[in-house]
Every structure is written in C-alpha cells, then in structure tokens.
C-alpha cells in the first residue's frame, strides 16, 4: 500500500514538473542539454524530455 502511495506522489511531482517546463517553454525559454547539462539536476523532468527527443 505504501509503495502505491509513493508511486502516485512521484507521478504527481512529474506531472507538476512537466507543467512548469511547459510554462517556461510557452514563455519563450529554451533549454539545451548540450550547452548546460547541469539543468537536469535542477529540473529532473528535463532529462525525461531529452530522452524522448
């Protein structure tokens, strides 16, 4: 039961991070993993986005 709750919490955090990233992109911010790889440590959702492209 605790594992399921932890998974739901993780999914919620990923969803929140993706929404924040989308908002930044909508505002015109661009992120380049090649230029600033440390960004993935700051915003872990970026690693997910880079792995899908």
TrEMBL record:
Source organism superkingdom = Eukaryota
Which InterPro entries does its entry note?
DUF1685 (IPR012881)
What is this protein's name?
Answer: Uncharacterized protein
